[in-house]
């Protein structure tokens, strides 16, 4: 399989995993992650999709208190084995990936043993890179682009230096959302709106109304399961949708 | 940073004004302006806007000898095209509710130009209080015109401002291109083109401080230089201008060597007269933006 075809099938597979998580966030019974991977014709691509969706897989657990099934947790562990976390994070992109892996690893560890607050897996992210990605000296354009790519960390109960830095950046966050909407970049808008919803639900005042923004993207052309998942998580965070 | 920005803004204004000055001839303006033109945007409005830009250069007085000299000649030229105010007078006499004559006239006062018979009409019109129904931001233009002329009115500036899109401070993402122009003009008139920045209420100044950078970024990305130049004028009208070096550098880089500021990213015509009529507005706005920015940078904090 050439690189381009792999990319397309990985995108499709990630959309499928996101659709399953979306169903669960909307109230369906289970994600059925293990079932999806075990019946997939292309195991490696399926595991890659699981790695890509990462921490979002825990959204039904964190938002609706749904259980994390052992079989699903095992699939996530297998996905790390198939696609090990990168080593030293040098580039901006690598730093973003390291933080997304950190979130997945941390939530996996907590789900496996709720008493444990420490990640049981290898992925770690250097705390100083949180500052590098989201420090106040960055332009609001750079800051919000980084925040959008870190949106899988916008989950209740995860905490950590990334969420703390986003909570400090209400203004660049709101500017980034505004810019994304005016450019009709609904994917980026939804990711940032998710951070805005988490900040708001954590008591951090926002210059823009996140509920209005969720509705705007939903009604004006936001499509795709990953975007819809970001919006569904935002809605749950804002408690604007009946459970 | 301040020094380089002052230098960039000064150069943008100087080159734009030079371009306008270089085009005040019969090739560009072959005909007299009719009292009732079929389309007032074709010659009448551009002449008025160029006169206004020259008036602001003279009002601010930060341009240096050559620039002030060019502004002086431009305002005299445009006043001449308005037949020393007779055109404005005739328009007003024929149509008593027209507001454009006073809106145009008020700027020429900065150049020392007056028309007594027109002023008597304007004083009378203000007393009659029969204003036509216009866009709320245009209503502010009329209020500012009377204020600039020193003609008393009973305008309630707070109510007039709150009737505009900007006055309602809607979500900044719910704006479009036309409304962005409305925002710019609301600010121009409330602040009298940067002459009264503190007349903007604090909530509106904060709103613009938050969202102006986003609008400037988005319309710079698509190369809408006419609107970007207008947004730079807005910045220079704020109580605390932001003076974005990056945006100033970008707009300076697209200005042509003869001073023309392209209205957008489309190719510019080679024909001297055609390119003037295509791009005189963005060039005029660039002259105003640079002039007001330099003035505020030099400490004219009002």
Topology at a glance:
The complex is a heterodimer of chains A (243) and B (302).
Chain A: H1 3-25, H2 33-38, H3 43-53, H4 59-64, H5 70-82, H6 92-112, H7 127-134, H8 140-149, H9 161-167, H10 170-182, H11 186-201, H12 210-219, H13 225-238
Chain B: H1 2-22, H2 44-60, H3 64-81, H4 86-94, H5 100-108, H6 116-128, H7 136-149, H8 157-162, H9 177-190, H10 202-221, H11 225-237, H12 245-254, H13 272-297
Pfam families (chain B): DUF6895
Protein name (chain B): DUF6895 family protein
Organism (chain B): Saccharothrix xinjiangensis
Query: Structural class from helices and strands of chain B?
Result: mainly alpha
Overall CATH class of chain B: Mainly Alpha
Q: Measure the end-to-end span of chain B.
A: 22 Å
Give a quick account of the main beta sheet of chain A: strands, pairing sense, barrel closure: none
End-to-end CA span of chain A:
43 Å
User: Helical segment tally of chain B?
Assistant: 13
- Residue stretches of chain B low in confidence (pLDDT < 50, at least 5 long) are none
When the domains of chain B are counted, the total is 1
Shape of chain A: globular
**Strand segment tally of chain B:** 0
**What would you call the quaternary organization?**
heterodimer
Total separate domains of chain A: 1
What is the chain-wise order of helices and strands of chain A? HHHHHHHHHHHHH
Indicate the CATH topology of chain B: Glycosyltransferase
Number of strands of chain A: 0
> Which parts of chain A are unreliable, with pLDDT below 50 for 5 consecutive residues or more?
115-120
Our estimate of the beta-strand percent of chain A is under 5%
Rg value of chain A = 17 Å
Q: Number of helical runs of chain A?
A: 13
Mean pLDDT of chain A: 89
Domain DUF6895 (chain B): 14-290
InterPro entries (chain B): DUF6895 (IPR054190)
Protein name (chain B): DUF6895 family protein
Organism (chain B): Saccharothrix xinjiangensis
């Amino acid at each position: 399989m050439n690189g381009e075809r792999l990319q397309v099938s990985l995108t499709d597979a990630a959309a499928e995993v996101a659709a399953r998580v979306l169903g669960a966030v909307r109230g369906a019974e289970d994600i059925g992650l293990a079932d999806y991977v075990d019946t997939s014709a292309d195991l490696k691509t399926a595991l890659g999709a699981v790695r890509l969706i990462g921490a979002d897989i825990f959204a039904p657990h964190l938002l609706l208190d749904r259980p994390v099934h052992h079989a699903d947790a095992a699939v996530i562990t297998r996905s790390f084995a198939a696609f090990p976390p990168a080593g030293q994070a040098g580039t901006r992109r690598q730093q973003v990936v390291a933080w997304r892996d950190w979130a997945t690893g941390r939530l996996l560890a907590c789900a496996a043993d709720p008493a444990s607050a420490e990640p049981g897996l290898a992925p770690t992210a250097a705390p100083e890179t949180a500052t590098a990605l989201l420090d106040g000296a960055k332009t609001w354009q750079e800051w919000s682009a980084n925040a959008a790519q870190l949106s899988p960390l916008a989950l209740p109960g995860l905490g950590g230096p990334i969420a703390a830095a986003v909570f400090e950046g209400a203004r660049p966050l709101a500017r980034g959302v505004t810019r994304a909407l005016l450019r009709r970049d609904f994917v980026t808008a939804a990711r940032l709106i998710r951070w805005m919803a988490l900040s708001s639900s954590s008591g951090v005042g926002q210059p823009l109304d996140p509920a209005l923004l969720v509705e705007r993207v939903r009604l004006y052309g936001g499509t795709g399961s990953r975007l819809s998942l970001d919006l569904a998580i935002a809605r749950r965070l804002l408690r604007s949708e009946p459970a | 940073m301040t020094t380089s920005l002052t230098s960039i803004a000064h150069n943008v204004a100087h080159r734009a004004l030079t371009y306008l000055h270089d085009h005040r001839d019969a090739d560009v303006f072959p005909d007299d302006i009719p009292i009732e033109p079929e389309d007032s945007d074709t010659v009448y409005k551009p002449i008025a806007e160029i006169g206004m830009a020259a008036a602001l250069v003279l009002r601010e007085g930060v341009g240096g000898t050559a620039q002030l000299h060019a502004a002086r000649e431009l305002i005299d030229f445009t006043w001449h095209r308005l037949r020393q105010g007779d055109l404005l007078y005739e328009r007003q006499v024929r149509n008593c509710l027209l507001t454009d004559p006073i809106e145009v006239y008020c700027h020429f006062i900065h150049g020392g130009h007056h028309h007594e018979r027109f002023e008597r009409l304007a004083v009378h019109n203000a007393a009659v209080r029969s204003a036509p129904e216009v866009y709320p931001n245009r209503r502010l233009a009329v209020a500012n015109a009377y204020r600039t002329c020193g003609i008393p009115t009973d305008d309630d500036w707070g109510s007039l401002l709150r009737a505009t899109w900007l006055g309602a401070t809607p979500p900044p993402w719910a704006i479009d291109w036309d409304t962005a122009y409305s925002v710019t003009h609301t600010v121009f008139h409330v602040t009298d083109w940067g002459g009264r920045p503190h007349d903007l209420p604090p909530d509106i100044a904060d709103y613009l401080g938050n969202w102006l950078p986003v609008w400037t970024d988005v319309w710079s990305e698509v190369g809408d230089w006419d609107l970007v130049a207008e947004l730079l004028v807005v910045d220079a009208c704020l109580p605390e201008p932001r003076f974005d070096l990056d945006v100033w550098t970008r707009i300076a880089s697209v200005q042509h060597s003869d001073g023309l500021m392209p209205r957008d990213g489309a190719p510019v015509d080679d024909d001297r007269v055609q390119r003037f009529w295509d791009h005189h507005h963005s060039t005029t706005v660039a002259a105003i933006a640079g002039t007001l920015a330099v003035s505020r940078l030099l400490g004219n904090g009002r």
